[in-house]
Amino acid sequence: MSGEKDLALLIQNMEPVLNTGEYVFCTVETLGGIPDIEKVLFFFRENEAITIVVEKTIADEWNMDYNYISSWITLTVHSSLEAVGLTAAFANALKKENISCNVVAAYFHDHIFVAEKDAERAMKALFSLRSAQQF
What we know:
By secondary structure, the protein is an alpha+beta fold. The chain has helices at 7-13, 56-61, 86-96, 119-133; strands spanning 16-18, 23-28, 42-45, 50-55, 69-75, 101-105, 110-115.
């Protein structure tokens, strides 16, 4: 398994990046109805439905319903899928600022979706977490 496992190093080296755009979570019954699967950022199959995340402009173009507009932050440190504590550390930093987060752990990076209105405060909280970890 590649990627960093040491929590202190992960926090020291994380570089939060606020991606451009507005992102929404939508549900579909099947992926067959998606006009262009390449425009889907990610999807996850649950018992109730398939959740897809796309840019808001795409959801609007496809006439999809959504009720949460988020910003997408990527932590550009290569974290191992076996790393322990990184999610808890940044979620706690955001909790202290009363910021809800939805997390996707992909192979190379962790991705955090926060309400669009909270994006700048979330970035400050993440940079503060990193600064507090510096020795």
